[in-house]
Amino acid sequence: MPLDDVFEFFRHYDRETYEVFACQGNEPTDDDIVDFEREVGYRLPDDFREFTKSSLGGLYMAVREELWPRPKPYAVGPFWSFLYGLNVFGIATDIPDWLDIRVRWRQFRDQAWADLIPFLQRIGDADAYCFNTDGQIVEWSHDEPDERRVVDMTFPDLLLQEIHELDERKNRKIQGEG
Description:
Blueprint: H1 4-12, E1 18-21, H2 30-40, H3 46-53, E2 59-63, E3 85-88, H4 101-110, E4 117-123, E5 128-131, E6 137-140, E7 149-151, H5 155-174
Antiparallel strand pairs: 1-2, 2-3, 3-4, 4-5, 5-6, 6-7
């Protein structure tokens, strides 16, 4: 099963290094997901549907602030040094707006990108990974919002890659870079 590696990672992640919050107990029903899909006009990929219905749906993951102090207003540094976490948007009951995929999609729709559903974003980055109407993952750039670079990966593989890259950035930060 493609998500097994993701679930395995979160069963054993380093709790001293990472803060992880998710819907845990407020998982959406199939009807909640179908309602959202009706609103957007297409079906979400199966692996994402399974993830968002799990206790990890609506995921916030960040390096603990004592290890990676948050940037101060007007701070200057290499771009990577501001990317201390990631969000996977979800459909959970009572999910905060900043983590709600429905709210994020409506913001995109209102900016004329209704064909994209943002589902994963690095904290500190205006760019996002989105699903297009074909269920493909595309990287959306706020600098070139009409460009659609297809990412040839599954949702679980992309999430694990982003977690790995976050871990690499964390190590650089702890070593005093940036």
